Amino acid sequence: MSFQKFITNAVSEWMNGDGQDADIVISSRVRLARNLQDQPFPMLATDSQLEQVLGRVEQAMQDEAFKQQENFEMIRMDTLTPLQKRVLMEKHLISPNLLSESRKGAVILSENEAISIMVNEEDHLRIQCLFSGLQLREAWKVADRVDDIFEKYLDFAFDERRGFLTSCPTNVGTGIRASVMMHLPALVLTQQINRILSAITQVGLVVRGLYGEGSEAVGNLFQISNQITLGQSEEEIIENLISVARQIIDQERAAREYLMQNRRLQLEDRLCRSYGILTNARTIESKEAAERLSDVRLGIDLDIIRNVPLSVMNELMVMTQPGFLQQYAGQQLTPDSRDERRARLIRERLKSAME
């Protein structure tokens, strides 16, 4: 397995669009935060101590059960260029935090990119599993299995009353963050989204943008995750999020049906105009591209736009980001050059999908 594959190939398994309710739920993610008992947390650790953590994690990876789980590769952040790290972040394989604060940081990636284990990020370990569609239970099973393997070799910081100890107090307890990335254009178009998001926050969940905390919700993409990690079991947290996600799915489907029955002509005009722009534009900014791609994705879901696979929309969601555009170009690009290449890439990818 070559590291270059992770950089040059835009397609990850979570983008294949074949999971349950994948027309609305783009991906499901489960992340576990863990720290070693006898080492300072990363923000207080010396380079030597962080190096020891890396060595112990590498040793744990030699376990036969770990090798049978997947074909993994450890990639150290200090061996990458800023552009290469940005590409990994755009593919959701590392966090923005590991991108910017990568002192002795590393990521362990499975070949299919469904499993991503960040080392020396905010915590010593961040075990992440990312699946297509609504597959939170499946993601949790894999994350739990990987956690068990590490626990055979690493003594995690744990308190009988508080649970797993983490750098951020909001992760103390189970250390679990479960999230679903949802495409909710009909709720936005029918102006119901603010009401829905307000209700979500009242049941212990939080809403963020495409890249998590601090990121903006663009392209009608919303990341919904648990806010409470203490006082509930991992299974309870997962089931609560699934229950809320199903309610949002039902409301998004109802909003789509309303638009098709009551505003079909206006809806078709909007979606087809966006498709026309994407297949003909010579320059397009990132935010407009996200909005137009959202329209086309909805058109595919409603069978208004045909012969374009859903997976292509997921690919373009990543491929049109600044890092990927520059990686493909092999050089740093000005904003104007990125806009031109973004438009060209979208035109070519949509054309090839139709052939």
Question: Main attributes?
Answer:
alpha+beta, allosteric enzyme, kinase, protein arginine kinase activity, 355 residues, single chain, 2 domains, 15% strand, ATP-binding, Creatine Kinase, Chain A, domain 2, 14 helices, two-stranded antiparallel ribbon, 8-stranded antiparallel β-sheet, Protein-arginine kinase
Explain what the structure shows:
The protein is α+β, with helices and mostly antiparallel strands. It folds into two domains: 3-173, 2-Layer Sandwich (Creatine Kinase, Chain A, domain 2), CATH 3.30.590.10; 263-354, no CATH class. It is built from 14 helices and ten strands. Helix 10 packs across helix 11 (286-301). The radius of gyration is 21 Å and the shape is globular.
